[in-house]
């Protein structure tokens, strides 16, 4: 699963139609927004099939990955994305709770191996 950060609430409305349209080339089967008690927090979790690698590389090449998200004070209107990892599953936040309840943590190597086997 991938984590999207800084997702405008407007892109999550109507079942996320706007966001899903932007991600259509990568054919994600679904996405979910992360909420806390106060409501939407600007994060979404996207599930991808085997085409996630191109999606990850597209964001990384535009400097919109997790490292960039953590280094930038002002994020502007850009959506940042990264493959959910161990620290994301073990954090104490709404994204972690969603990942723990709905996902299986896989290594990059494991995902690439799955892709080769298909």
Automatic annotation (TrEMBL):
Entries under InterPro entries matching the protein: FDM1-5/IDN2 (IPR045177), XS_domain (IPR005380), XS_domain_sf (IPR038588)
Top-level lineage group: Eukaryota
Protein name: XS domain-containing protein
PANTHER family, A to Z: OS02G0293300 PROTEIN (PTHR21596:SF84), RIBONUCLEASE P SUBUNIT P38 (PTHR21596)
XS domain ranges (all copies): 1-90
Any one GO BP annotation for this protein: gene silencing by siRNA-directed DNA methylation
């Amino acid at each position: 699963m991938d984590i999207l950060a800084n997702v405008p609430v407007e892109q999550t409305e109507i079942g996320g139609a706007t966001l899903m349209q932007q991600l259509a080339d990568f054919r994600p089967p679904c996405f979910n927004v992360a909420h806390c008690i106060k409501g939407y927090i600007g994060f979404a979790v996207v599930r991808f099939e085997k085409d996630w690698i191109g999606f990850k590389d597209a964001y990384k090449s535009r400097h919109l990955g997790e490292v960039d998200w953590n280094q930038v004070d002002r994020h502007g209107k850009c959506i940042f994305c990264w493959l959910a990892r161990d620290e994301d599953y073990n954090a104490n936040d709404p994204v972690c709770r969603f990942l723990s309840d709905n996902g299986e943590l896989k290594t990059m190597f494991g995902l690439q191996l799955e892709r080769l086997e298909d």
